Amino acid sequence: MKLTLRIWRQKSPNDQGRLVSHQLDDVSEHMSFLEMLDVLNEKLLAEGQEPIAFDHDCREGICGTCSMVINGVPHGPERATTTCQLHMRKFRDGQTITVEPFRAKAFPVIRDLVVDRGSFDRVIQAGGFISANTGGAPDANAIPIAKGEADVAMDAAACIGCGACVAACPNASAMLFVAAKVVHLTHLPQGQPERAARVREMVRTMDAEGFGYCSNHFECEAVCPKEISGRFISELNREFRELFWRGKS
Amino acid sequence: MTFLASAWRSSIGAKIVMAVTGIVLFLYAIAHMLGNLQVFIGQDAINAYGVLLRAFPPFLVVARAVLLLSVGLHIIAAIRVTLLNRAARPERYAVRKAQEASLAARTLLVSGVLIATYVVYHVMHFTTRNFATTYSELHDSAGRHDIYSMVVGSFQDPIISIAYIVAMILVAFHLSHGIGGFMQTLGWTHPRYGTRRLGLVIATIIAIGYIAVPVASLLGILELPAGAEMAAGGH
């Protein structure tokens, strides 16, 4: 496959940045998108140019590190798939592909396609955990949890924190991420003691980090590589509303 | 009050203000539509309804206050949320492809501004009657303000009717996103039943209810009562 790649190049956080076109003539359709970028980087290095910086780690769709917007869609055109699991067969020979970093005030660009998603870590630090005494691991089934509850918690826990929801949201809102983390723990007995504080602090931190406000477009759900449901946002709203009624918001 | 202040500052709190005031206006839209549809029962019904609404003045005062407050808060929350959302993405994408967001969702601000503008005109036309048309100030045989003739007579003018129909389509457009939106924001959702299509269905029903009146007036299904034209002519 022959491809024209328009890729965002930005030297540093304060650099202006711009889209730069690169030609790649010998792309195998069996390559993943990241392997294609590896090939492009080898070519750039051979030509004595700076390679393109991009985030990647596991390359098997579970770590949430790869973060780029491909032709206007975070993680590219294939639904429920991370960029590392996206294959070049999903593109046409001769196609022009525009690759941009995730864009949000809360995700500042560090270099090229690499953004700082430390804001997500700070949201988790604010309440996305349970406090438990240390010691031996408890027996697996010592705390009975109803099947339905366990299923919801597992569905929410599938979030890998990649930030595609923020990147896709017209408002750069982090509601799907925060909702997934809140709902995951809300449906488990271990999550109950810190339930109210978790919602309050995670929402407060989310706002302080400069994420936008959800306006129910459901773009997040559409691009989520783990297909986290937008109805979890509704559940987070419900949790927040309860805080409000109890005067704890 | 501190929890109210912190709720207002919070993103979800601002959305709750948006949702609750939206519901007030949504319910008003339904009530107003049902009121309007009484023109199909006849001149007597709608004129009596007009008298009924004004029979207990405190009701009118409270209703208007609640409506004005809702409109005001809805607009303030909308401006605030929009500005904060713009700030949340300082750098735009070169290429952006919407996956799920409907046109109504993406143009909520535009439809909102147009509706607000139309409402000002509409109130000046039918409520405060600043620019009285030929049929604005008639009275029926019982001596009541003749709302029936005012409505039907006004809507016999195609320009007034078309402006009204366009505005009501915008209302439906706005509501088609808004209804699902307030249900989502207030957490009124169900794992099995979606709310997104529900908004479109309810909004369409409301639009049809409103548009029926000008359409029936234009088609002559609703006719001016005998004497109205003469009374207007002699005005």
In short:
The complex is a heterodimer of chains A (249) and B (235). Chain A is α+β, with helices and mostly antiparallel strands and 249 residues long.
Could you explain the architecture of this structure?
The complex is a heterodimer of chains A (249) and B (235). With 249 residues, chain A is an alpha+beta fold. Chain A has helices at residues 33-46, 118-127, 147-157, 164-168, 175-186, 195-208, 219-223, 231-245; strands at residues 3-9, 18-24, 69-70, 73-74, 96-100, 109-111, 114-115. Helix content of chain A is 35%, strand content 11%. Chain B has one domain: 3 helical TM bundles of succinate and fumarate reductases, CATH 1.20.1300. Chain B contains 10 helices and no strands. In chain B, helix 6 (108-126) packs across helix 8 (158-185). By secondary structure, chain B is mainly alpha-helical. The chains are: A alpha+beta (249), B mainly alpha (235). The interface between A and B is large, with 51 and 44 residues.
Core attributes:
heterodimer; A: 249 residues; alpha+beta; Ubiquitin-like (UB roll); Fumarate Reductase Iron-sulfur Protein, Chain B, domain 2; 2 domains; five-stranded mixed β-sheet; two-stranded antiparallel ribbon; 7 strands; 35% helix; elongated; B: 235 residues; mainly alpha; 3 helical TM bundles of succinate and fumarate reductases; 10 helices
| Rg over C-alpha atoms of chain B, rounded to the nearest angstrom | 21 Å
Instruction: Please state the oligomeric state of the protein chains shown.
Output: heterodimer
Name of the CATH architecture of the largest domain in chain A? Orthogonal Bundle
Shape of chain B: elongated
N-to-C span of chain A: 55 Å
Largest interface: A-B, 51 and 44 residues
Number of helices of chain B: 10
Low-pLDDT parts of chain A are none
Identify the CATH architecture of chain B. Answer: Up-down Bundle
What is the CATH homology-level superfamily of the largest domain in chain A?
Alpha-helical ferredoxin
How many individual domains of chain B? 1
